[in-house]
Amino acid sequence: MALSEIVGVNFVLSAFFFVRALSKALITYAQNADFPSHTKIKSRGLTEPLPKKLPTAVDIKKAIPKACFNPTVKESMYYVFQDFFLVTAAYALMKASEVFLPGWLHWPCVFLYWAVQGTLFTAIFVLGHDCGHQSFSHHGWFNDLAGNIIHSFILVPYTMWKLSHKHHHKFTNNFDKDEVFYPVKESEPCAGGKVLPGFGFGIGWFGYVLRGYAPRAVCHLNPMDPMFKGHRLACVITLLFNMVSIYLQYCHFSTFGGFTAWFKYYFIPLFIFASYMVIITFLHHNEMGITWYNDSEWDFVKGQLQTVDRHYGLVHKAIHHIGTHQMHHMFSKIPHYRLEMATSAFRKTFPDLVRICDEPILPAFMRMFAKYEKQNIIADTTKEFAYQ
């Protein structure tokens, strides 16, 4: 085996064991920490249940400025060019640093690159996410073309994800029908199964794409899955887009550095993006005071309002305000660049419906994962459930 191959294998193994050790350390901390009750967490609306009489979706929509529902190709494409430019610039700067900076700065630059590029990959996902919701433009064909191109860069199967995500929005916080991270009834065969610490962070996302979330698992790489009935051809086209993306990566990295370079410059940022996906998806639907309902108790407005807004600090704007989740769920056709405006209007008009948690993201994730491990199996007769 050549020296470069040995170095590459050692690098991959070292990165794997580092991530595993970090995950175990964080989960151990979460399990042993004396977390505050939800009354002590900096939050709004989490200590009181939703009012019994809720406005309709039409009532809420009337309070949102009409401009919020008007995406434009110009604005949406601006963010596409911006984010892909930043991804390219980050890669170019990292490569330049290896030539022009002293050796002792190499690994600090690498870790900074991973954090920045993983965040930018997440931003790119959000743009494709807009395409999937048809909030990228008023042209369905353009949304799907752009979505396939954008998501293939980060190896997300656009059409399959769009369809399963649509199902998630249709049945948000309905534990009988929702799509991921819902509490599981004790009679389900998968109840009580082991979960990787922190869902394995990025491993959880890759597992979700490949196998889905039991007991209602969906393989996002199988066009014949029942979830995708009526959309088989579109699913196959999406797979072709992803195959082209993989081929282009192969062409580039086989010329510039091989597998080690691919792993270092692309896969680690992809894993960080995948970790973002697990954390974001889990935290916006799971918090103390946020209720899950069975099918008989659930309705659309109630389910959408049982999502929680969170702020992502320094990267909140960079990942396109995905933390403004209540309005995104209530009206998924609002483009990301109008979500702050819509959220401000909603909070002003319906202050008693607002759900916000301002706890820092990683501590919140550790805290809620520890609760998920202990409480996510529920009795078959449960009608409403909230973590305590």
UniProtKB/TrEMBL annotation:
Cross-referenced InterPro entries: FA_desaturase_dom, Fatty_acid_desaturase
Signal peptide (from-to): none
Domain called Fatty acid desaturase: residue spans: 106-352
Residue intervals passing through the bilayer: 6-23, 111-129, 141-161, 195-213, 233-250, 262-283
UniProt KW Membrane keyword: yes
KW Membrane (keyword) present: yes
BP-aspect Gene Ontology terms: lipid metabolic process
CDD domains: Delta12-FADS-like
Domain of life: Eukaryota
GO molecular function terms listed in the Swiss-Prot or TrEMBL record: oxidoreductase activity
Keywords noted in UniProt: Membrane, Transmembrane, Transmembrane helix
Protein name: Fatty acid desaturase domain-containing protein
Organism of provenance: Dimorphilus gyrociliatus
